Protein backbone atom coordinates (compact mmCIF):
# COMPACT_ATOMS: atom_id res chain seq x y z
CA UNK A 1 0.00 0.00 0.00
CA UNK A 2 2.80 2.40 0.90
CA UNK A 3 4.70 1.56 -2.27
CA UNK A 4 1.61 2.29 -4.38
CA UNK A 5 1.09 5.66 -2.68
CA UNK A 6 4.72 6.61 -3.23
CA UNK A 7 4.70 5.67 -6.93
CA UNK A 8 2.54 8.60 -7.98
CA UNK A 9 2.82 10.23 -11.41
CA UNK A 10 3.48 13.73 -10.09
CA UNK A 11 6.25 14.58 -7.63
CA UNK A 12 5.18 13.53 -4.16
CA UNK A 13 6.25 16.73 -2.45
CA UNK A 14 4.22 18.83 -4.90
CA UNK A 15 1.13 16.71 -4.25
CA UNK A 16 1.57 17.05 -0.50
CA UNK A 17 2.05 20.82 -0.82
CA UNK A 18 -1.24 21.24 -2.66
CA UNK A 19 -3.17 18.64 -0.65
CA UNK A 20 -6.49 19.89 0.72
CA UNK A 21 -8.10 17.33 2.99
CA UNK A 22 -11.55 19.01 3.07
CA UNK A 23 -11.70 18.70 -0.72
CA UNK A 24 -11.20 14.93 -0.79
CA UNK A 25 -14.16 13.05 -2.22
CA UNK A 26 -15.90 10.29 -0.27
CA UNK A 27 -14.30 7.74 -2.59
CA UNK A 28 -10.82 9.17 -1.99
CA UNK A 29 -11.35 9.16 1.76
CA UNK A 30 -12.53 5.56 1.60
CA UNK A 31 -9.42 4.54 -0.35
CA UNK A 32 -7.21 6.33 2.18
CA UNK A 33 -8.88 4.61 5.14
CA UNK A 34 -8.60 1.24 3.42
CA UNK A 35 -4.91 1.79 2.64
CA UNK A 36 -3.84 2.78 6.16
CA UNK A 37 -5.87 -0.10 7.61
CA UNK A 38 -3.76 -2.68 5.76
CA UNK A 39 -1.32 -4.64 7.97
CA UNK A 40 1.64 -3.65 5.76
CA UNK A 41 0.89 0.03 6.46
CA UNK A 42 1.26 -0.29 10.25
CA UNK A 43 3.94 1.93 11.78
CA UNK A 44 5.66 -1.19 13.15
CA UNK A 45 5.85 -2.83 9.70
CA UNK A 46 7.01 0.35 7.95
CA UNK A 47 9.58 1.05 10.67
CA UNK A 48 11.13 -2.38 10.22
CA UNK A 49 11.07 -2.51 6.41
CA UNK A 50 11.42 1.14 5.32
CA UNK A 51 12.39 3.42 8.24
CA UNK A 52 12.74 6.46 6.00
CA UNK A 53 9.06 6.17 5.04
CA UNK A 54 7.81 6.13 8.65
CA UNK A 55 7.02 9.89 8.85
CA UNK A 56 4.99 9.60 5.64
CA UNK A 57 3.07 6.61 7.03
CA UNK A 58 2.28 8.56 10.21
CA UNK A 59 1.20 11.54 8.09
CA UNK A 60 -1.17 9.35 6.05
CA UNK A 61 -2.71 7.90 9.21
CA UNK A 62 -3.19 11.42 10.59
CA UNK A 63 -4.92 12.46 7.35
CA UNK A 64 -7.22 9.46 7.59
CA UNK A 65 -8.03 10.34 11.20
CA UNK A 66 -8.81 13.93 10.20
CA UNK A 67 -11.20 12.72 7.52
CA UNK A 68 -13.00 10.37 9.91
CA UNK A 69 -13.41 13.16 12.49
CA UNK A 70 -14.66 15.76 10.02
CA UNK A 71 -17.15 13.49 8.28
CA UNK A 72 -20.81 14.40 8.81
CA UNK A 73 -22.09 12.85 12.04
CA UNK A 74 -24.50 10.60 10.16
CA UNK A 75 -21.55 9.02 8.37
CA UNK A 76 -19.46 8.61 11.51
CA UNK A 77 -21.95 6.82 13.71
CA UNK A 78 -21.06 3.15 14.12
CA UNK A 79 -18.90 0.93 16.30
CA UNK A 80 -20.28 -0.71 19.35
CA UNK A 81 -19.03 -3.33 22.16
CA UNK A 82 -14.68 -8.35 26.06
CA UNK A 83 -12.12 -6.74 27.92
CA UNK A 84 -11.00 -3.14 28.41
CA UNK A 85 -7.28 -2.42 28.56
CA UNK A 86 -6.89 1.22 29.49
CA UNK A 87 -5.07 3.15 32.14
CA UNK A 88 -5.76 6.44 33.86
CA UNK A 89 -2.62 7.26 32.28
CA UNK A 90 -25.52 -7.70 8.88
CA UNK A 91 -23.97 -7.54 6.23
CA UNK A 92 -26.52 -8.03 3.47
CA UNK A 93 -26.26 -11.27 1.56
CA UNK A 94 -27.92 -12.20 -1.74
CA UNK A 95 -31.12 -14.15 -1.16
CA UNK A 96 -29.50 -17.15 -2.81
CA UNK A 97 -26.91 -17.34 0.00
CA UNK A 98 -28.99 -16.77 3.11
CA UNK A 99 -27.26 -17.70 6.36
CA UNK A 100 -27.04 -16.82 10.04
CA UNK A 101 -24.53 -14.05 9.38
CA UNK A 102 -22.61 -12.13 12.03
CA UNK A 103 -24.38 -8.86 12.71
CA UNK A 104 -22.39 -5.91 11.40
CA UNK A 105 -23.93 -2.44 11.33
CA UNK A 106 -24.01 -0.96 7.84
CA UNK A 107 -22.17 2.22 8.87
CA UNK A 108 -19.60 0.40 11.00
CA UNK A 109 -15.98 1.49 10.81
CA UNK A 110 -14.76 -2.02 11.51
CA UNK A 111 -13.02 -3.92 8.72
CA UNK A 112 -12.26 -7.62 8.55
CA UNK A 113 -9.42 -9.72 7.15
CA UNK A 114 -10.37 -12.10 5.72
CA UNK A 115 -13.61 -10.35 4.74
CA UNK A 116 -16.32 -12.24 6.60
CA UNK A 117 -19.00 -10.26 4.76
CA UNK A 118 -18.23 -12.31 1.67
CA UNK A 119 -18.23 -15.72 3.35
CA UNK A 120 -20.73 -18.55 3.29
CA UNK A 121 -22.09 -19.99 6.52
CA UNK A 122 -19.71 -22.93 6.26
CA UNK A 123 -16.76 -20.54 5.89
CA UNK A 124 -17.95 -18.43 8.83
CA UNK A 125 -17.76 -21.53 11.03
CA UNK A 126 -13.98 -21.73 10.55
CA UNK A 127 -12.31 -18.35 9.91
CA UNK A 128 -8.53 -18.58 10.16
CA UNK A 129 -6.54 -15.77 11.82
CA UNK A 130 -9.41 -13.30 11.80
CA UNK A 131 -8.32 -9.67 12.14
CA UNK A 132 -10.85 -7.03 13.13
CA UNK A 133 -9.50 -3.55 12.59
CA UNK A 134 -10.49 0.08 12.73
CA UNK A 135 -8.38 2.52 10.76
CA UNK A 136 -6.26 4.89 12.89
CA UNK A 137 -7.43 3.15 16.07
CA UNK A 138 -6.20 -0.44 16.20
CA UNK A 139 -6.80 -4.10 15.47
CA UNK A 140 -7.43 -7.46 17.10
CA UNK A 141 -6.16 -10.68 15.53
CA UNK A 142 -7.91 -13.78 16.84
CA UNK A 143 -5.47 -16.65 16.46
CA UNK A 144 -6.35 -20.06 15.09
CA UNK A 145 -9.76 -20.97 13.70
CA UNK A 146 -12.74 -18.92 14.91
CA UNK A 147 -16.47 -19.61 14.53
CA UNK A 148 -18.13 -16.21 14.10
CA UNK A 149 -21.63 -17.34 13.12
CA UNK A 150 -23.15 -16.20 16.41
CA UNK A 151 -20.95 -13.13 16.97
CA UNK A 152 -22.72 -9.77 17.07
CA UNK A 153 -20.00 -7.33 16.06
CA UNK A 154 -22.32 -4.42 16.88
CA UNK A 155 -22.23 -5.28 20.57
CA UNK A 156 -19.43 -7.79 21.11
CA UNK A 157 -16.43 -5.81 19.82
CA UNK A 158 -15.45 -2.22 20.32
CA UNK A 159 -12.26 -0.49 19.21
CA UNK A 160 -11.77 3.09 20.36
CA UNK A 161 -8.67 5.23 20.86
CA UNK A 162 -7.17 4.01 24.14
CA UNK A 163 -9.49 1.07 24.76
CA UNK A 164 -10.38 -2.39 23.52
CA UNK A 165 -13.67 -4.00 24.51
CA UNK A 166 -14.70 -7.56 23.74
CA UNK A 167 -17.87 -9.00 25.26
CA UNK A 168 -18.50 -6.09 27.66
CA UNK A 169 -21.72 -7.73 28.81
CA UNK A 170 -20.79 -10.60 31.12
CA UNK A 171 -23.91 -12.53 30.16
CA UNK A 172 -22.93 -12.63 26.49
CA UNK A 173 -19.40 -13.97 26.96
CA UNK A 174 -19.01 -17.60 25.80
CA UNK A 175 -16.77 -20.16 27.46
CA UNK A 176 -13.01 -19.71 27.08
CA UNK A 177 -11.93 -20.85 23.62
CA UNK A 178 -15.33 -20.27 22.05
CA UNK A 179 -16.33 -17.38 19.79
CA UNK A 180 -13.98 -14.44 20.30
CA UNK A 181 -13.06 -15.43 23.86
CA UNK A 182 -9.70 -16.83 22.82
CA UNK A 183 -6.04 -16.04 22.29
CA UNK A 184 -5.56 -12.77 20.41
CA UNK A 185 -3.02 -10.08 19.59
CA UNK A 186 -4.14 -6.49 20.08
CA UNK A 187 -2.50 -3.51 18.36
CA UNK A 188 -3.51 -0.01 19.45
CA UNK A 189 -2.57 3.29 17.83
CA UNK A 190 -2.49 6.85 19.21
CA UNK A 191 -1.28 5.69 22.64
CA UNK A 192 0.93 8.70 23.15
CA UNK A 193 2.97 9.36 26.31
CA UNK A 194 1.67 12.32 28.37
CA UNK A 195 5.00 14.11 27.96
CA UNK A 196 4.52 14.18 24.20
CA UNK A 197 7.38 15.84 22.35
CA UNK A 198 9.50 15.98 25.53
CA UNK A 199 10.51 12.37 24.86
CA UNK A 200 11.38 12.88 21.19
CA UNK A 201 15.09 13.49 21.79
CA UNK A 202 15.50 11.46 24.96
CA UNK A 203 16.02 7.73 24.21
CA UNK A 204 16.44 6.91 27.90
CA UNK A 205 13.12 8.56 28.79
CA UNK A 206 11.47 6.68 25.92
CA UNK A 207 12.79 3.37 27.27
CA UNK A 208 11.60 4.21 30.79
CA UNK A 209 8.11 4.93 29.50
CA UNK A 210 8.19 1.74 27.43
CA UNK A 211 9.01 -0.19 30.61
CA UNK A 212 6.06 1.52 32.31
CA UNK A 213 3.76 0.34 29.53
CA UNK A 214 5.21 -3.18 29.83
CA UNK A 215 4.48 -3.26 33.56
CA UNK A 216 0.98 -1.90 33.05
CA UNK A 217 0.34 -4.56 30.38
CA UNK A 218 1.42 -7.33 32.73
CA UNK A 219 -0.82 -5.99 35.51
CA UNK A 220 -3.71 -6.35 33.06
CA UNK A 221 -2.78 -10.06 32.74
CA UNK A 222 -1.66 -9.57 29.14
CA UNK A 223 1.64 -10.35 27.42
CA UNK A 224 3.60 -7.28 26.34
CA UNK A 225 4.87 -7.38 22.74
CA UNK A 226 5.95 -3.84 21.89
CA UNK A 227 5.41 -0.13 22.44
CA UNK A 228 6.82 2.83 20.51
CA UNK A 229 6.66 6.35 21.96
CA UNK A 230 7.30 7.93 18.56
CA UNK A 231 4.44 6.22 16.73
CA UNK A 232 2.04 5.66 19.65
CA UNK A 233 1.76 1.97 18.74
CA UNK A 234 1.13 -0.50 21.59
CA UNK A 235 0.92 -4.26 20.94
CA UNK A 236 0.14 -7.05 23.38
CA UNK A 237 -1.32 -10.58 23.49
CA UNK A 238 -4.06 -12.06 25.64
CA UNK A 239 -4.82 -15.73 26.28
CA UNK A 240 -8.55 -14.97 26.34
CA UNK A 241 -10.89 -12.09 27.18
Radius of gyration: 19 Å
Strand order of the largest sheet: 1-2-3-6-8-7
- Spatial separation of the terminal alpha carbons: 32 Å
Coarse shape: globular
Give the biggest beta sheet: 6 strands, antiparallel
Count of DSSP-assigned helices: 9
The portion of residues forming beta strands comes to 15-25%
Q: Spans of 5+ residues with little confidence (pLDDT < 50)?
A: 72-99
- The helix/strand class is alpha+beta
- Secondary structure: helix percent: 25-40%
Instruction: Give the mean pLDDT.
Output: 76
Number of beta strands: 8
Following the backbone from N to C, one meets helices and strands in this order, namely HHHHHHEHEEHEEEHEE
Nutshell version of this structure?
Helices cover 32% and strands 19% of the residues.
Q: What would you say this structure looks like, in words?
A:
The chain is α+β, with helices and mostly antiparallel strands and 241 residues long. The chain is built from nine helices and eight strands. The strands form two sheets. It has a six-stranded antiparallel β-sheet with strand order 1-2-3-6-8-7, with helices on one face. Strand 2 and strand 3 (138-146) form a beta hairpin. Residues 72-99 have low confidence and may be disordered.
Amino acid sequence: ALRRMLLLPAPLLEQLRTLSLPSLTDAQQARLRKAVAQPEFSEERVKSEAPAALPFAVFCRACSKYCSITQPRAQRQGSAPLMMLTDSTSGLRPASRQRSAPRIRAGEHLEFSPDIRQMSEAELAAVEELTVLRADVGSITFHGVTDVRTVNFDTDVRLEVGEVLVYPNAGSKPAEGEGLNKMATVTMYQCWPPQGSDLANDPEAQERYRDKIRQMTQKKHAHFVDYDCMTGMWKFRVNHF
